[in-house]
């Protein structure tokens, strides 16, 4: 991945960092000591975090962690009562009512901008909480949130939290079947949706999708409709459908936020399963709030008066992550409900400039997709407001990483490259703004996360070797199981090494102690007995000037076990010829060794991706083998699969 250090924090970064305040308060002098103390005594650490960040409990907790039922079923902040909504909106509405809580821009452009203060956000959340209760929603009931990124989506999560309902964040691009599956699994009573939203200049008819989904779910009694587009032709079911404005207009402007047990469920986040069976990760008020507040404060170093923008959707864990983190710190979250490169390739950079974004979170795939459009789209914008660049989703390649670091950040912003997951509810690995960085690194363990890299025998691998990422102790934001399927939860994460969480990521630690990711272990290529991560193949391809992006997968082979197929998107002007294919195969062989020369290079117009810009490699593998790809409802561009098959 590269041995040179590209970022070393200035004195100003160190002095200003939230984590430096924490270290000073506890007499901690070095990064290494901080990580060690946070892991050696996790109860001390999470108690200290809650106090440092001013997390407010209505009733104090008696015990930080309870492992009496074993690590898989650990609970946190026992005896404590609180509410995430109180911490993320109510207290700021009282103390800093005019501070901006949410800034939103629609795909329509600068004229479609709204700025919502903490006082305004609380009133909306309070009115909606009252409206939900008037519709019969009680504590513990599930409410689906099928909305584009918007202030209304934030208010909906907070309204559910206020009355103790469990919200279901649902990806705004899902089809009816995917929405229905999630609503049915949770027995949702209410679905909150919109009449539609624009995507690349076309209307996405959310209400029609919602109606088709609800028709399959008997538990849903009401559908609340936010008129995002003001469509007069949107379908309507009298007696079931409720207008957003009518519902909120009939409620008082204040709702008494419930005092809830720290372990009270907050939301269920669903991931797409490879078998078509989504997994529902259950997250709770206390643990999720404390862990996410800690990450946004110490990792992305967000302060009041600053603005966090993560290019994501409410249906992915980074949606709840950014709105919870910004709210817990009294800062501002920026939301955008359109395509990041529409109507022009500089849309993302234009918004950073106009809204003075300080913390920008992206996926590596998004950056790889923007690079071929040209540096001039970045250069024409003033990005001096940026202090922190952040990323997650998949491993980096060096060239795109350095493009983000140099071209976007001007070499002056660290890339906080984090890794975790929906079930983790947080991060396993992350840099801090006070740490030096090498290209592509995740630097080391996230604070309080007792992670290691193990070989098949359950021992730590040697420096430079690739092994399984594991976590030896529980953490506050860990899922409280898979909804309605405890056996699947134990089998998925706790069965490989009893009492130890196995996440399914390949990782390594170099001689200098810098950690790196190498992709999902279920994406691993096994060539003639040797293991290889697809990111390494894709990295080699990315070094060629003609390659915009690629996806590498393993296809069964009688001799080698697997052979490598690479699906390649070329830059404009490059020609998809046999000669180019041979040249690219040679590049991979040169970088990784002749044993890893791809058996086939397939040139495609685009790769199948999720809305958060992750490449769905299992879809590519299924296209190559003719197998069932599993649940593909999260794809933003499902038509890409048909085009890939047409090239085979």
Name the average pLDDT.
94
Percent of residues in helices: 25-40%
Q: Round the Cα radius of gyration to an integer and report it.
A: 24 Å
Per DSSP, the total helix count is: 21
**Spatial order of the strands in the main sheet?**
5-4-17-16-18-19-20
Strand content: 15-25%
Task: Work out the oligomeric state of the chains in this entry.
Answer: single chain
Number of strands: 31
Low-confidence stretches: none
Largest beta sheet, briefly?
7 strands, mixed
Q: In terms of structural class, how would the helical and strand content be classed?
A: alpha/beta
The gross shape turns out to be globular
CATH architecture grouping of the domain at 83-97 and 113-302: 3-Layer(aba) Sandwich
Provide a descriptive summary of the structure in words.
The chain has 648 residues and is α/β, with parallel strands linked by helices. Among the domains are: 83-97 and 113-302, 3-Layer(aba) Sandwich (Rossmann fold); 531-646, ANL, C-terminal domain (GMP Synthetase, Chain A, domain 3), CATH 3.30.300. The protein is 32% helix and 23% strand. A 7-stranded mixed β-sheet has the order 5-4-17-16-18-19-20, with helices on both faces. Strand 29 and strand 30 form a beta hairpin. Helix 5 packs across helix 6, helix 5 crosses helix 7 (151-163) and helix 18 (534-542) packs across helix 19 (578-592).
């Amino acid at each position: 991945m590269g041995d040179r250090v590209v970022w070393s924090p200035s004195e100003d970064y160190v002095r200003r960092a939230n984590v430096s305040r924490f270290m000073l308060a506890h007499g901690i002098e070095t990064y290494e000591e901080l990580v060690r103390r946070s892991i050696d005594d996790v109860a001390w650490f999470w108690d200290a975090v809650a106090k440092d960040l001013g997390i407010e409990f209505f009733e104090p907790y008696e015990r930080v962690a309870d492992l009496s039922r074993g690590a898989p079923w650990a609970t946190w902040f026992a005896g404590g009562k609180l509410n995430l909504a109180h911490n993320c909106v109510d207290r700021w509405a009282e103390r800093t009512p005019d501070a901006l809580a949410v800034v939103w821009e629609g795909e329509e452009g600068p004229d479609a901008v709204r700025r919502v203060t903490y006082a305004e956000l609380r009133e909306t959340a309070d009115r909606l909480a009252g409206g939900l209760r008037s519709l019969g929603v009680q504590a513990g009931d599930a409410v689906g949130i099928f909305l584009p990124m918007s202030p209304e989506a934030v208010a909906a999560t907070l309204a559910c939290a206020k009355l103790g309902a469990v919200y279901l964040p649902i990806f705004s691009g899902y089809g009816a079947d995917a929405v229905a599956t999630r609503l049915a699994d949770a027995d949702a009573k209410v679905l909150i949706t919109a009449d539609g939203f624009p995507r690349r200049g076309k209307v996405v008819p959310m209400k029609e999708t919602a109606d088709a989904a609800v028709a399959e779910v008997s538990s849903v009694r009401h559908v609340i409709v936010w008129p995002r587009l003001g469509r007069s032709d949107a379908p309507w079911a009298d007696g079931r459908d409720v207008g957003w404005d009518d519902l909120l207009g009939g409620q008082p402007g204040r709702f008494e936020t419930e005092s809830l047990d720290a372990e009270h469920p907050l939301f269920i986040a669903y991931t797409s399963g490879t078998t078509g069976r989504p997994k529902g990760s259950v997250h709770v008020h206390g643990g999720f709030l404390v862990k996410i507040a800690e990450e946004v404060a110490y990792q992305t170093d967000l302060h009041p008066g600053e603005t966090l923008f993560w290019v994501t959707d409410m249906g992915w864990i980074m949606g709840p992550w950014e709105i919870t983190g910004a709210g817990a710190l009294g800062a501002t979250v920026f939301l955008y409900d359109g395509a990041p490169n529409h109507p022009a390739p500089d849309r993302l950079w234009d918004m950073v400039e106009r809204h003075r974004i300080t913390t920008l979170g992206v996926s590596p795939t998004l950056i790889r997709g923007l690079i071929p459009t040209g540096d001039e789209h970045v250069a024409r914008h003033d990005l001096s407001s940026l202090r922190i660049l952040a990323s997650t989703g998949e491993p980096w390649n060096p060239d795109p990483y350095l493009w983000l670091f140099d071209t976007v950040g001007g070499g002056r912003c660290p890339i906080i490259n984090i890794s975790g997951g929906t079930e983790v509810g947080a991060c396993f690995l992350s840099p801090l703004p006070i740490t030096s960085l090498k290209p592509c690194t995740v630097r080391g363990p996230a604070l309080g996360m007792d992670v290691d890299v193990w070989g098949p025998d359950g021992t730590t691998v040697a420096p430079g070797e690739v092994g399984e990422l594991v976590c030896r102790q529980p953490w506050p934001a860990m899922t409280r199981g898979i909804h309605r399927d405890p056996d699947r939860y134990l089998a998925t994460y706790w069965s490989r090494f009893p009492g130890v969480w196995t996440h399914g990521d390949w990782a390594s630690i170099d001689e200098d102690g810098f950690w790196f990711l190498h992709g999902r272990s279920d994406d691993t290529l096994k060539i003639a007995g040797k293991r290889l991560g697809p990111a390494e193949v894709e990295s080699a391809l990315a070094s060629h000037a003609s390659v915009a992006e690629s996806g590498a997968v393993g296809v069964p082979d009688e001799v080698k076990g697997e052979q490598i197929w690479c699906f390649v998107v070329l830059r404009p002007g490059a020609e998809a010829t046999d000669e180019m294919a041979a040249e690219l195969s040679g590049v991979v062989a040169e970088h990784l060794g002749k044993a890893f020369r791809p058996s086939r290079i397939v040139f495609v117009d685009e790769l199948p991706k999720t809305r958060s810009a992750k490449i769905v490699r299992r879809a590519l593998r299924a296209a190559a083998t003719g197998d069932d790809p599993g649940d593909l409802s999260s794809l933003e561009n499902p038509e890409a699969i048909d085009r890939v098959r047409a090239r085979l």
